[in-house]
ABC transporter ATP-binding protein (Nonomuraea marmarensis), 294 residues
Amino acid sequence: MNAIVFDHVSKHYGDVLAVDDLSLAIEPGNTVALLGPNGAGKSTSINLLLGLLTPTQGTITLLGNTPAQAVKAGQLGAMLQDGALIPELSVKELIDLVRRLYPRPLDLDEILALADLSDLAARRANKLSGGQTQRVRFALAIAGAPRILLLDEPTAAMDVESRLRFWASMHDYAAGGRTVLFATHYLEEADEHSDRVIVIAKGKLAADGTAAEIKAGVGGQSVSFAIGDQPAAGLDLLPGVTAVEVLAGTATLHTSDVDATLAGLYRGTTLDVRGLQLSGADLESAFLALTRES
Ligand SMILES: Nc1ncnc2c1ncn2[C@@H]1O[C@H](COP(=O)(O)OP(=O)(O)OP(=O)(O)O)[C@@H](O)[C@H]1O
């Protein structure tokens, strides 16, 4: 049975179509990144999974259940973008309070260890740094030992050190065969911390695969040069080119065949090519190409 299924799901907010006929299935045990630019529909998708929103069309199932059933059975844990902690309680008291709400919670010490909070157990919730607060919110999300963990931009506003600690905690939790879906707009996080990347743009599925597959699928190399005021018309027709961007006098050609593109650029155009730079396959080029296409 799949952990998460979206079956032709759409969500309208009045005239805004935030999720547009989205269908996908996620197997248990996978860690999946939901990647997309601002407004792509990531938070809406997570809120639909949690039953906080209802689809305008289509159905969502979690381990064969509706979102409401999954929440009731303690199968779902979530870390959303906001949500205050009770300031008067210590970290330990707060986590214990929440874990007691679930039928089969994790042990308190296990939660503290997984969230890297053992040393902060006695600290009051209002005396924590931003990164520490996020770790407590992670602890609350895993307290009920959910089979499915949803994280909406969990590392927003964290520094590099906090991020590293956070992802280590997430991997420890996922290692027990649990399913994790995290929304992010950090490409490197999607690349490093997921088994599968689902790219959405304007509420639609733009790509679905491993980070390596997505890079390969859109021609992950690029050629850029200073184009100045010269016309960019026709660059998209050069061999291998999958997408062209011109920004502040620099032209970037995303290509699946860098040699053919360079040959075409020098032999097939009269452009004065200066400041040539080549860059290897990266998820950022793939992401830009994908989200622009849709
Ligand atoms: N409550 C709401 N009422 C009306 N429109 C909304 C509402 N919430 C979101 N939207 C719109 O729905 C679309 C998808 O928003 P959503 O927050 O799901 O995107 P996102 O991918 O999470 O974006 P971000 O990365 O900026 O958090 C956007 O166009 C947004 O403006």
Q: What stands out?
A: The chain has a mean pLDDT of 90. The chain has ten helices and 13 strands. The CA atoms of residues 226 and 250 lie 4 Å apart.
